[in-house]
Amino acid sequence: MMYNKFYKIMVCLLLVGFAGQTRASSHREAPLIANDPLADNVDLYAFKSPERPNNIIFIATYVPMQLPQGGPNYYGFGTNIRYEIHVDNNAGAPGDELIYRLTFKSKNEDPTTFFNIRLGKQNLKMTYTLEVSTNGGNTFIPIITNGFVPPNNIGQRSTPNYDDYLRRAVITGATGIRAFVGPVDDPFFVDLGRYF
The pTM is what? Predict the structure, then answer.
């Protein structure tokens, strides 16, 4: 019973660190993960929803140091990576009570070009599956399948009506969980040169 109740109050968000008009998060502190930016978990936030105090919001950011001038092809999520958020509600018991797992698939609808987006058409489309485990990762239950990942917002010419992409990307899953998975600004700044 606690399992079902917990799901009804959970809200989950996953974000790729990407900057539209500002600079992106500057996390590059872990030497080994710096070699695999698609798997680099930059930050994880967990907090109560200001509008719904019984809901918990998770925000996980990935792929640091991506800037608007880094195009025309931007990073996406890795199709050979399992992105997971582990939740331990009982510190006295071993293991995690909940594990959220996201896996991704991509489809190139126009292999004649290397552009992800061309002439207002999204050539490289990405979808995800969100699953949850309540038994320490032994089994996973799908919550969202074929979830829509919006493209990077690179301007009106390439991504017109971007708000439509964003609306399609907010998905309510089978357990009532709401998820957004896609690129957004990550306005985290630190002057690393000054500190090192």
Answer: 0.79
